[in-house]
């Protein structure tokens, strides 16, 4: 019996491993083989006299209304005190999430204003923005209204009003520059460049590598990111900013922190330069800031070098649009490319994936209920002796493994986002999940062998009556489907 169980378990695990391998895309990131080499360690733009230094002027702020289609938002304008004449201005475009001038871009807006540049931070419009639904082209139209308001302010040079987009905002700014050639300039900070789906997969890969997860976990990246998400929406996941960058004719400042693991920092700058070249635009300036994170912060504070460089670049335009060196700062490193994500072959619909789990779990519950009612009312279940134990142990094992896998994925996600490592969770948790899965297959093997023993015994019947048949059908099918689902997410993979 022990040999039969071991052999059946081996066959079951191998079959599940093969099924998991063929049901969806693997994760084979493409190495980046064309590094970007900085031309100077110094990020400084222009000489000491290039624009007023940050902190030269006191700053005053005022709140203005911006009328959008269907609503009105407020924006904060920060201006240098005592400086007259036609001044340059910049409108800030928010990254992902909510964005209010009371919290977003406070340091950048104040310090640029103290260097003689009028800044405007509008509140993000939220009635048309949610996790599931975002329209970057419509958002660009909303931010264009803020540009119009800033251009109309006294003391502003309308031709020198530009836009600053950070992270998600760097998908919106190129739409604005392509649609409005009169914009004076664009600053793309921590620009994702590739579509959101590709950027999400790239970030997940980088975060997980930093956390030290086992190689088998990476299979989940294309299968999770590549599918259509449950509940619909997320059309913006495939938004392509490239056509808009290829119509951008304004000077562009590109800024990245070399401590930003979420963005393709080398590929991003290369793509922006290449796209601008398609438009016949060679007005780019690329800067990398040592140790700065996604928001160009070092130890929680926006890099002073970054604000200095951006203020000089804006104040010095058009001369600084092609100032040397074109690419400078800390040497960036990017191991893999952000690439298009394949759609899972059979599980590309997130609603299908979710419904499979729900229906299978429901089948287990209903099957157990039928068995329990039959046992109470009829003092018998209709199952041959020795079958009930492994049948429900298999069901419990699949449920526990699914629960453990969900816990594990949530735990490593938290660790990854916090840039933390914990070998007990990362390595030990994965071993525990897989051990639960294999243990469930062992119990399933015991069940199959016992069914075979009953089948060949002419004096015994494995199942008697419809309650027993319903129980076996529901619990067996539900467990099998959940095991295959676990295989899809990599629990049983054997390096296949």
UniProtKB/TrEMBL annotation:
Leader sequence residues: 1-19
Gene3D superfamilies cross-referenced by the UniProt entry: alpha/beta hydrolase (3.40.50.1820)
One of the record's GO molecular function terms: carboxylic ester hydrolase activity
Keywords: Hydrolase, Membrane, Signal, Transmembrane, Transmembrane helix
Keyword set includes NADP: no
TM annotation in the entry: 352-374, 386-410, 430-449, 470-491
Domain of life: Bacteria
InterPro entries (UniProt xref): AB_hydrolase_Est10 (IPR053145), AB_hydrolase_fold (IPR029058)
PANTHER family xrefs: ESTERASE ESTD (PTHR43265)
Protein name per UniProt: Alpha/beta hydrolase
Species of origin: Pengzhenrongella sicca
């Amino acid at each position: 019996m022990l040999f039969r169980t071991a052999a059946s378990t081996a066959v079951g695990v191998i079959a599940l491993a093969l099924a998991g391998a063929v049901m969806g895309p693997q994760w084979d990131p493409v190495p980046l083989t064309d590094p970007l080499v900085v031309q100077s360690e110094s990020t400084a733009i222009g000489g000491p006299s290039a624009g007023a230094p940050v902190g030269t002027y006191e700053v005053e702020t005022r709140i203005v209304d911006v009328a959008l289609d269907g609503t009105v938002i407020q924006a904060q304008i920060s201006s240098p005190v005592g400086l007259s004449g036609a001044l340059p201005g910049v409108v800030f475009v928010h990254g992902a999430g909510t964005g209010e001038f009371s919290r977003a871009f406070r340091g950048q807006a104040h310090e640029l204003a103290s260097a003689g540049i009028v800044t405007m931070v509008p509140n993000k419009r939220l009635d048309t923005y949610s996790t599931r639904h975002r329209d970057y082209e419509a958002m660009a139209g909303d931010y264009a209204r803020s540009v119009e308001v800033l251009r109309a302010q006294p003391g502003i040079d309308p031709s020198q009003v530009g836009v600053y987009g950070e992270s998600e905002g760097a998908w919106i700014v190129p739409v604005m520059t392509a649609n409005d050639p009169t914009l004076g300039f664009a600053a793309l900070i921590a620009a994702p460049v590739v579509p959101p789906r590709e950027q999400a997969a790239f970030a997940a890969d980088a975060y997980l590598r930093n956390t030290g997860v086992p190689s088998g976990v990476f299979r989940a990246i294309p299968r999770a990111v590549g599918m259509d998400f449950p509940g619909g929406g997320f059309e913006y996941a495939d938004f392509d900013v490239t056509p808009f960058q290829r119509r951008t004719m304004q000077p562009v400042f590109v800024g990245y922190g070399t401590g930003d693991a979420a963005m393709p920092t080398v590929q991003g700058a290369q793509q922006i330069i290449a796209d601008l070249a398609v438009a016949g635009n060679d007005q780019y300036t690329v800067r990398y800031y040592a140790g700065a994170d996604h928001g160009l912060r070092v130890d929680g504070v926006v890099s002073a070098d970054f604000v200095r460089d951006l203020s000089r670049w804006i104040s010095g335009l058009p001369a600084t649009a092609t100032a040397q060196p074109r690419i400078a700062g800390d040497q960036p490193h990017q191991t893999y490319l952000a690439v298009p994500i394949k759609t899972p072959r059979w599980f590309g619909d997130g609603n299908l994936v979710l419904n499979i789990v729900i229906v299978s779990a429901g089948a287990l519950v209903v099957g157990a209920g039928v068995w329990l009612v039959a046992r109470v009312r009829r003092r018998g279940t209709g199952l041959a002796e020795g079958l009930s134990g492994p049948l429900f142990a298999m069901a419990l094992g699949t449920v526990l493994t699914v629960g453990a896998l969900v816990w594990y994925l949530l735990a490593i996600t938290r660790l990854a986002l916090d840039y933390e490592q914990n070998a007990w969770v990362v390595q030990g948790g994965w071993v525990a999940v897989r051990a639960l899965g294999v243990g469930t297959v062992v119990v399933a093997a015991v069940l199959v062998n016992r069914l075979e023993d009953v089948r060949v015994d002419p004096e015994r019947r494995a199942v008697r009556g419809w309650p027993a048949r319903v129980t076996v059908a529901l619990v067996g099918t539900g467990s099998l489907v959940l095991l295959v689902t676990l295989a899809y997410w990599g629990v049983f993979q054997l390096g296949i």
